Amino acid sequence: MASWNTCPAVERDPDKVSGAWVFRGTRVPVTALFENLMEGATVEQFLDWFPGIERWQVESVIDHECREL
Fold first, then answer.
1. How far is CA 16 from CA 8, 38, 51, in A?
2. Longest CA span, the chain
3. Is the dihedral of CA 51, 10, 66, 69 positive or negative?
4. Of 26, 33, 43, 51, which one has the greatest count of Cβ atoms within 10 A?
5. What is the distance between the alpha carbons of residues 48 and 3, in angstroms, rounded to a whole number?
6. Over 90: is that where the pLDDT of 10 sits?
């Protein structure tokens, strides 16, 4: 997985979600996006299921991950 230090859509706090990378301003781990996509969910579904996350954040995370491959 990518080094998330340079992605503005995410943050990590050792006191939040055991220090996992989460979407900035939420407690939703970045891994939740990829797990849902791998199981067949669409970005639209993910955004519906996690209303605190904005489309730009999802797009930024996907773009960042693709650049790191």
1. 17, 25, 19
2. 31
3. negative
4. 33
5. 27
6. yes
The CATH number that applies at residue 22 is 1.10.10.10
> Angle at which helices 55-68 and 30-38 pack, to 10 degrees?
80
Full residue range of the structural domain in which residue 45 is found: 4-68
- Cβ(58)–Cβ(30) under 8 Å? no
The CA distances from residue 69 to 56, 65, 66, in Å, are: 20, 7, 5
The structural domain count of the chain equals: 1
Which of these, 67, 63, 69, lies nearest to 9 by C-alpha position? 63
